[in-house]
Amino acid sequence: MLVLRVPGDKSISHRALLLAALGEGPSEVRGLLDSADIEATARALRALGVPMPPLDATLVVVPGVGRRGLTAPVAPIDCANSGTTARLVAGLVAGAGLEATLVGDESLSRRPMRRVAEPLRAMGATVELPSHEGLPMTVRAAGLRGLTWHSPVASAQVKSAVLLAGLVAQVPVEVHEPMPTRDHTERLLEARGVDLVRDGAVVALRPNGRLDAGRIDVPGDPSSAAFLLGAVACGASGALRIEGVAVNPTRMGAVAVLRRMGLSVRLEGTRLAGREPVADLVAEFVAAPLVGGTDGHGGAPPALVGVTIGADEVPSLIDELPLLACVAARAAGETRVTGAGELRVKESDRIRLVVENLRAVGADATELPDGFVIRGSDRPLAGTVRTAGDHRIAMAFGVLGAVPGNAIVVDDPSCVAVSWPSFWDALDACHR
Ligand code: S3P
Hints:
Elements: E1 2-5, H1 10-22, E2 26-30, H2 36-47, E3 60-63, E4 77-78, H3 83-96, E5 99-103, H4 106-110, H5 114-122, E6 126-128, E7 137-140, E8 147-150, H6 156-169, E9 173-176, H7 184-191, E10 195-199, E11 202-206, E12 216-217, H8 222-233, E13 239-246, H9 253-261, E14 263-273, E15 276-285, E16 304-305, E17 308-309, H10 321-328, E18 331-332, E19 334-337, H11 350-360, E20 364-368, E21 371-375, E22 382-385, H12 391-401, E23 407-410, H13 423-431
Parallel strand pairs: 1-13, 2-12, 4-5, 8-9, 16-18, 17-19, 22-23
Antiparallel strand pairs: 2-3, 5-7, 6-7, 9-11, 10-11, 13-15, 14-15, 19-21, 20-21
Helix pairs in contact: 1-2, 1-7, 2-3, 3-6, 5-6, 8-10, 8-12, 8-13, 10-11, 10-12
The structure holds shikimate-3-phosphate.
């Protein structure tokens, strides 16, 4: 059986650096993702006075400066393509009572920042946004007050920004979400002695002065693993073991959907890395493998089946929807995704781009206001895909393009550096 690993989880890597930097002493971070997005968070911390060493997936020792150790940046902080950096650092700056301007690349500059500006303003910060409510965003604060925030969007970034602001300013905060989102910030805070009360989609931070330093182990990224699972579902390597993947329940939606589509995925050796559950994912094709190059009439029937994905599931698979859409293009029948309007404000408008690109390569896809409908087939797919610099669009169509018989060109393969610089090698390994 093919055995692979995926890089460290992106969400946990951002939080590991931020919380380690705020600790009262050095913290060892192992398994960190070394990619452009995490570099953006490291750069932001350097700008805020933290002497961050270079990123290293094996070991980074972050010299914690303590909650009061951050200093005002002398220039705008470049968050590049990273929404998590922009929103979480906004919370940090507000909590520390500093002034900073956050800027980013063209894609990030368009993404909505009001969702994080509003709660920070309600805590007493001044947050200036341009008329389109993206970046540049200037945050200025001196002494925040506590907050109970009912977030209109299910966003782990918004929740985490408020928690970080409360933590750094040592004021109580409570966040109510419309649906529970990934809880990595909460797990890391709890592991470091911070007092949280959690109940479903509600989390409250009660300041207790603590943020312990110490070791953080970053598990493999389930959002990256999903691309390899998708490759197996589309007929690559018969069986695949991906070692050491985060299996936090808030991130397991894509595994659940791929199972419904017909892929067998087992979790083996489930263990804990700090407070995060980790397992090996073992994926196997149980149905007849796909045969590429048939005309869809009389060829081997697709082994996968289309599925329905609704709003309840969306937070647990939001970043995997481009990949699931590409797998759906190879599944029998219709796949319908609704309740996923948030996809329009990711690194690109992922609803529009997924549909436009699926059509460009000859697949049957329809755009909905908050999702899409895809009718799969085993027809060969060919054409050029426009990524708009979006790493997950590039990887999703890379998986579809690697299916024997398909001929898909991704216009900007290098944009995978945002979350997985060696993605193309891993995909090749699945097809060897
Ligand atoms: C993330 C949360 C999600 C996700 C993003 C990473 C995080 O975004 O799409 O890739 O690390 O908190 P939202 O918080 O905007 O839903």
